[in-house]
């Protein structure tokens, strides 16, 4: 497999340390004829295909232990087991109605909160909430007006968003999430 030789429109990646020190890189790709979820083991220089569904490849985040991948394409949210390729897809009506479009950026906190950035804001969901999963909008992307040209990465539970020379640090700790939610609710009440 030579995934990097393909013409691509969107690439997202996540690095996960497993088994006490083995680092695996997971990445999603989307192009006119090539896409899906893939992995790369730098110790063996081996690429592997996890899921070759073209319509899965817009953004990707991994759980802290690498046991589950989360990705968004359009209004489809997928979860994938990287060891088996088994995939579950959430239906469109489980997305907030205001979310529409592509070019999302995804990231995961160490305590399992899945963040993704869209045209209209920053959203998150607790992946450990079982059937009680709920989306929350916690803010807007400051200084970034074209979401197809920014990147996001989670570092020690701070979401760093970079584009066109700007970098925003967005805290994602439990206390920060609570404060952001209160601020959003207060602004909506005005």
Q: What are the SSEs and their pairings?
A:
Blueprint: E1 10-18, E2 22-30, E3 35-41, E4 46-51, E5 59-62, E6 69-73, E7 76-80, E8 87-90, E9 105-108, E10 113-118, E11 121-126, E12 135-139, E13 151-155, E14 158-163, E15 166-171, H1 174-189
Antiparallel strand pairs: 1-2, 2-3, 3-4, 5-6, 6-7, 7-8, 9-10, 10-11, 11-12, 13-14, 14-15
InterPro entries: WD40/YVTN_repeat-like_dom_sf
Overview of this structure, please?
The chain is mainly β and 190 residues long. The chain has one domain (3-189): Methylamine Dehydrogenase, Chain H (7 Propeller). The protein is built from 1 helix and 15 strands. It has one helix at 174-189; strands at 10-18, 22-30, 35-41, 46-51, 59-62, 69-73, 76-80, 87-90, 105-108, 113-118, 121-126, 135-139, 151-155, 158-163, 166-171. It is globular and about 55 Å long. The model has no long low-confidence stretch (mean pLDDT 76).
């Amino acid at each position: 497999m030579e995934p990097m030789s393909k013409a691509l429109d969107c690439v997202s990646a996540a690095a996960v340390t497993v088994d006490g020190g083995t680092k695996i890189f997971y990445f999603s790709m989307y192009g006119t004829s090539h896409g899906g979820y893939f992995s790369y083991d730098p110790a063996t220089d081996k690429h592997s295909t996890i899921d070759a569904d073209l319509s899965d490849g817009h953004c990707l985040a991994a759980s802290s232990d690498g046991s589950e991948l989360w990705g968004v394409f359009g209004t489809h949210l997928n979860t994938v087991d990287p060891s088996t390729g088994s995939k579950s897809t959430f239906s469109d009506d489980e997305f907030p109605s205001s979310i529409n479009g592509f070019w999302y950026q995804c990231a995961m906190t160490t305590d399992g909160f899945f963040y993704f950035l869209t045209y209209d804001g920053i959203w998150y969901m607790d992946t450990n909430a079982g059937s009680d999963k709920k989306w929350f909008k916690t803010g807007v992307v400051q200084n970034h007006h074209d979401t197809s040209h920014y990147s996001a990465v989670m570092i020690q539970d701070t979401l760093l968003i970079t584009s066109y020379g700007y970098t925003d640090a967005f805290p994602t700790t439990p206390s920060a999430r609570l404060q952001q939610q209160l601020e959003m609710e207060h602004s909506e009440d005005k």
